[in-house]
Write a structure and sequence with these properties.
By secondary structure, the protein is of the alpha+beta class. The protein has a domain of about 90 residues. It contains five helices and nine strands. The strands form two sheets. It has a five-stranded antiparallel beta sheet with strand order 2-1-5-4-3, covered by helices on one side. Strands 7-6-9-8 form a four-stranded antiparallel beta sheet. The termini are far apart.
């Protein structure tokens, strides 16, 4: 039973750094989670500052940046798109996504049930954003497995070892991804900012630092995708 008395009382902000155009059918994505929009914007601003020092194509900005930077920014400051190589379709996407977790909403927060944020790396957008019929959906572990079946569909093909890595990531890591045909989706487990530190919480605690085993699997995936 969902803790309906606490629904929508808490917000999290995901600061997404997506990269597309690295290779056909492949992109790379990282995410960090914050309790306030200001913290998320500060995180995004640091990444933007670093990217603007890299080699890139001609850049324009509606925020008055000088030096020919090609930064396309939303008026609310929640998104930047830096065109690194227009011919290759290589872009760096920085976006802040507002999330409404259900299972981390104060005194009655569940310490065991985890929620996942799903990012479509092909289109560089939230899988369940405003245009989704599941608007803002944050699946639990089992929900994520079920969603992966829907993403794949009956006509998709996927390497069994890769899918096993995806499932392993759901239960043992803080992030995981799935790649099949034109489906490339990266999933990030939401941290629990408000729940008590029970034994189960310590076992499932999420940190912003990346897992070494995930990175190793990620590198293998990139080699496979080339």
């Amino acid at each position: 039973m969902l803790p309906t008395q606490n629904l929508n009382l808490m917000k999290l902000y995901a600061s997404i750094h997506g990269v597309c155009g690295l290779a056909e059918g492949y992109s790379d994505t990282t995410a960090a989670f914050f309790k306030t929009l200001d913290e998320a914007k500060a995180h995004k601003a640091k990444i933007l500052e670093l990217l603007m020092k890299s080699e890139h194509e001609a850049i324009t900005s509606n925020r008055g940046l000088s030096g020919g930077f090609n930064v396309i920014s939303q008026a609310d400051g929640r998104e930047d798109i830096i065109v690194m190589n227009d011919d290759e379709g290589e872009q760096e996407i920085l976006r802040i996504v507002e999330l409404s977790p259900i299972w981390d909403t104060g005194r009655d927060a569940d310490n065991v049930t985890t929620e996942w944020f799903c990012w479509n790396q092909i289109d560089n957008e939230d899988m369940y954003g405003d245009e989704s019929f599941k608007n803002g959906y944050l699946p639990t572990d089992m929900g994520l497995i079920q969603e992966s079946m829907e993403w794949l569909g009956k006509d998709s093909t996927i390497d069994l070892e890769m899918y096993q890595e995806f499932v392993s990531g759901v239960y043992f890591r803080s992030q995981t991804f799935i790649d099949a045909d034109d489906v490339v989706i990266h999933c990030f487990r939401l941290p629990k900012f408000n729940s008590g530190m029970t034994t189960n919480t310590k076992q499932r605690e999420v940190t912003i630092s990346q897992d070494n085993d995930f990175n190793e699997a990620h590198e293998q995936h990139k080699q496979f995708a080339k």
